Amino acid sequence: MWTVIYIASTAKLAEKLRSRLAEEGFLVKIRPVNMSKQQFEILVPSGELEEVQEVLTSILHP
């Protein structure tokens, strides 16, 4: 099962996060939430949720 870990406000940010998390070895999907608002969900396997949260925090708040 896939779990939303973050909602990015732009496609560029979503792709940057997907790329960085993939570099760390995580499976990542991007799914548009609402094309009119340009929001994108970042999804990861629920089994990796805790590990991904730690890495995501370090990416967003270096």
What does this structure look like?
The protein is an alpha+beta fold. It has a single domain (2-60), classed as Alpha-Beta Plaits. 40% of the residues lie in helices and 32% in strands. The chain is built from two helices and three strands; from the N terminus they run βαββα. A three-stranded antiparallel β-sheet has the order 1-3-2. A hairpin with a 4-residue loop joins strand 2 and strand 3. The longest helix has 13 residues, at 11-23. The protein is globular and about 30 Å long. The model has no long low-confidence stretch (mean pLDDT 93).
Helix/strand layout:
Layout: E1 2-8, H1 11-23, E2 29-34, E3 39-45, H2 49-60
Antiparallel strand pairs: 1-3, 2-3
Outline of this structure?
This protein has 62 residues and is an alpha+beta fold. Helices cover 40% and strands 32% of the residues.
Helix- and strand-based class? alpha+beta
Strand coverage percent = 25-35%
Apparent shape: globular
Q: CATH architecture, please?
A: 2-Layer Sandwich
State the strand order across the main sheet: 1-3-2
Poorly predicted parts: none
Please work out how many helical segments DSSP would assign.
2
State the total count of DSSP E strands.
3
Mean pLDDT over all positions: 93
- Give the CATH topology: Alpha-Beta Plaits
Largest sheet: 3 strands, antiparallel
Estimate the helix proportion, in percent: 40-55%
Gap from first CA to last CA = 29 Å
